[in-house]
Specification:
The complex is a heterodimer of chains A (217) and B (221).
Chain A (H helix, E strand, L loop, with lengths): L39 H31 L3 H6 L1 H20 L11 H11 L2 H13 L5 E8 L4 E8 L10 E7 L6 H4 L3 H8 L5 H11 L1
Antiparallel strand pairs in A: 1-2, 1-3
Helix pairs in contact in A: 1-3, 4-5, 4-8
Chain B lengths: L20 H23 L3 H4 L3 H7 L10 H20 L11 H11 L2 H14 L4 E7 L5 E7 L14 E7 L6 H4 L3 H8 L5 H12 L11
Antiparallel strand pairs in B: 1-2, 1-3
Helix pairs in contact in B: 1-4, 3-4, 5-6
The chains are: A mainly alpha (217), B mainly alpha (221).
GO cellular component, one term (chain A): mitochondrial matrix
Function (chain A): Destroys radicals which are normally produced within the cells and which are toxic to biological systems.
Catalytic activity (chain A): 2 superoxide + 2 H(+) = H2O2 + O2
């Protein structure tokens, strides 16, 4: 992603911008479109405040990173790593998440490749949900629950990551992510995570999950 | 029952408008209660952990005293139970507030320069803790004060804590602690927190902490 575009030549060409700033992606639906599973109030805060903050944070960190890179200031580069991980991870994860969701009226169950793989690796969609939900509910602190694809084995895998760590840190391709940070559900569900986890399955965009699988293969 | 949910030292609405009633209700009656319930379930089969007391239990976290199959549950829920029990104590109606004792003030000035500079450091630690966690002021074993933050339900009493010490002040920065009223605006919550710090209690924690001692309910001397 963005880090790949960091050009080692930049220190020889001072002032040359090689990192393109990232932008907050638009949601594919209105803020209220995922009701009643996820409230419009949450969607608006989540997208326009939380995700926007990660975008701003990533751009700021990458600007500093470029500057440090141009001066070959390794200590400064290292000091920026956690800001890049937090904010970059936040941007990557949320960008995936918005596309993983769809208004309930447009919901279609999994079909094609993704459906076959789910049946193969979990028995059925219910089998997947039965394993995914407790994994998500069991996250301590902030984090994400994932349905990931292992390119080496061709298998699906349920995983969790802490904070904004992207799934790539576990060597899996993210197909579906569920945000378990409290900001993702608290205003509507308070401490009752199981209710959020029950409701979210009604608004999963399985077409998008299937597209993510196709892109990964 | 080995561990018990302590009652709040004040009404749910006592910290308004800085911390809202609904948050106090859910935070104490649901979140803290769940840590207690889960802790009791985790230590059910371990009598040596059931009766050791919450402070000593936390001091054992990170050591082999906690059996490995319950280590994570004890860390999260034992930590959560102590942290929240302590948190209710360090807060109070904003009228209970004469500020740090002369002893504590001297220690603050020595470590940070002034109370304002302590607040600046503490606020930065609280705002900068990514994800869930806590910010703390501790008395270290060398007697000096320090500001630190910990992830999730970790605290500075754990064995192997990055900055180890006896807590005298703590702030929950998990989103459930502030989201209903402050939404994403954690820094506003952190500023408001200072209006509900119960300095009398903090002074007592400091007096005990200076001698290396810590108990949830600091004796009023």
């Amino acid at each position: 992603m963005a880090l790949r575009s960091l050009n080692r030549l930049s220190f020889a060409l001072p002032g040359c911008r090689t990192f393109s700033t990232v932008k907050l992606p638009d949601l594919p639906y209105d803020y209220g479109a995922l009701e009643p599973s996820i409230s419009g109030q949450i969607m608006e805060l989540h997208h326009s405040k939380h995700h926007q903050t990660y975008v701003n944070g990533l751009n700021a960190a990458m600007e500093k990173y470029q500057e440090a890179d141009s001066k070959s200031d390794l200590a400064a580069l290292i000091a920026l790593e956690s800001a890049i991980k937090f904010n970059g991870g936040g941007h990557v994860n949320h960008s995936l998440f918005w596309k993983n969701l769809i208004p309930a009226k447009d919901f279609k169950p999994p079909s094609g490749e993704i459906a076959s793989l789910i049946d193969k690796d979990f028995g059925s969609l219910d089998g997947l949900i039965g394993k995914f939900t407790p994994a998500a509910a069991g996250i301590q602190g902030s984090g994400w629950a994932w349905l990931g694809f292992n390119k080496a084995t061709g298998k699906l895998s349920i995983a969790t990551t802490a904070n904004q760590d992207p799934l790539s840190t576990q060597g899996l391709v993210p197909l579906l992510g569920v945000d378990m940070w409290e900001h993702a559900f608290y205003l509507q569900y308070k401490n009752v995570k199981p209710d959020y986890l029950k409701a979210i399955w009604k608004v999963i965009n399985w077409q998008n999950v299937g597209d993510n699988l196709a892109a990964a293969k | 029952m080995a561990y018990n949910l302590p009652p709040l030292p004040y009404d749910y609405g006592a910290l308004e408008p800085h911390i809202d009633t609904e948050t106090m209700q859910i935070h104490h009656d649901k979140h803290h209660a769940t840590y207690v319930k889960n802790l009791n379930a985790a230590v059910e089969k371990f009598p040596e952990l059931k009766d050791v007391g919450i402070v000593d239990l936390n001091k054992s976290i990170g050591t082999s005293k906690i059996p490995s199959d319950v280590a994570t549950a004890v860390r999260n829920n034992g930590g959560g139970h102590l942290n929240h029990s302590f948190f209710w104590q360090v807060m109070g109606k904003s009228s209970d507030n004469n500020g740090p004792s002369s002893d504590l003030k001297a220690a603050i000035d020595s470590a940070f320069g002034s109370l304002d500079e302590l607040k600046t450091k503490f606020n930065a630690a609280a705002a900068g803790r990514f994800g869930s966690g806590w910010a703390w002021v501790v008395v270290k074993s060398d007697g000096n004060l320090a500001v630190t933050s910990t992830p999730n339900q970790d605290n500075p009493l754990f064995s192997g804590a990055e900055v180890a010490g006896v807590p005298i002040l703590g702030l929950d920065v998990w989103e459930h602690a502030y989201y209903l009223k402050y939404r994403n605006l954690r820094p506003e919550y952190i500023s408001a927190f200072w209006k509900v710090v119960n300095w009398e209690t903090v002074n007592n924690y400091y007096s005990a902490g200076k001698k290396g001692s810590f108990s949830i309910e600091p004796s009023r001397s």
